[in-house]
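User: Second chain of the day. Same drill as before.
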Amino acid sequence: MSAADDPISLYVHIPFCTLKCSYCDFNSYAGIDELMRPFVESLVAEFGLWGAFVEGRSVPTVFFGGGTPSLLPLAEVERIMSALRDSFAIEPDAEVSFEANPGTVDLEYLRGLVRAGINRLSFGVQSFHDDELSALDRIHSAEEARQGYRWAREAGFERINLDYIYGLPEQPMERWQATIEEAIELAPEHLSLYALTVEEGTKLAYDIDHGRVPGPDADEQAEMYEWSMERLPGTGYAQYEISNWSRPDEECRHNLVYWHNGEWLGLGPGAHSHWGGFRFADVYSPKQYVERLKDAETRANPSAAPAEVLKAMPQVTFTDLQSPETAIADTAILALRLNEGLDLAEFAARFGREFDDIYETPLAELAEYDLLERANGRLRLTQRGRLLANEVFVRLLPD
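Assistant: Same format as last time:
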């Protein structure tokens, strides 16, 4: 558990979408725009509830995710940013990231984000081929993605991330390569590359189950991933996490909090948090979120134990007290996602136990398969291990 004066990060979940993408299983909804203003009122109320319990802890990163945060009118973004500063100690040089869909922004909107204090933009581009974007149910075109990027630079954004998805059904390797070559030419500070996954309950899963589209080919996805790992380092991008590459010192500071198993508050419907030894989540339904936070107040004392604080939070509907075994596994698995891997000395200091003593049997097995390696006091995935990361992670889970 972190000390009471350690930094804490904030994740703000914006649940609105224009159209639910076929592959998406995030807590997002189309057709609920009438809830937008009440939602912002409730979000501001939740900020106020939490302010007293993290008072004195600085906030180095804020991340607006969704959904589509860029569907928020600028006036609402400004109100949210003002309320964040009123309730939390946002550091002067905090990284404030904002996810955007290229089809929902223009130059003036992006300038407004910069004025509001957003300093890192993450565009969900996914592809530079219109037929692939259509297959994914994305609402933007390839040209709108290019224009959005140009506008973001003109608006003053100096830190931009571009998201892409590879391994679409029947996607040829040369299509993926062309998308990445164009991304390299644009020269964003950060690239996130994700294999298409089929999540239960999504439109994509339904279409695959009913024979409308083929499922992604795991071997082809592996080839695309390996090509990306070979291509990007020579263009100024270093891989620092399984799915993420950046230019020097341009890693996403917020996501590093997750991978170092740090503490953060998730604010908004369905947002997950890690605080006080607990993992917990807000109610998923935006409508219920608004109802639970209407005229809300918490009667917990600011010095109350985390369990009592969570009981007093009307919007929190799921809590899980982390056992030592779960905390150990979480820390190991999340750190191994990073290219730098797990610092074994830090791990021993954090948990009072040596990693090798806890995982003696799986370590021997994983080393035999060439999935893990040691260097400079760290344990990390090999290149082969990144391709088979889940095979590693499942062996580190508690019984």
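The mean pLDDT is 92.

User: Great, on to the next one.
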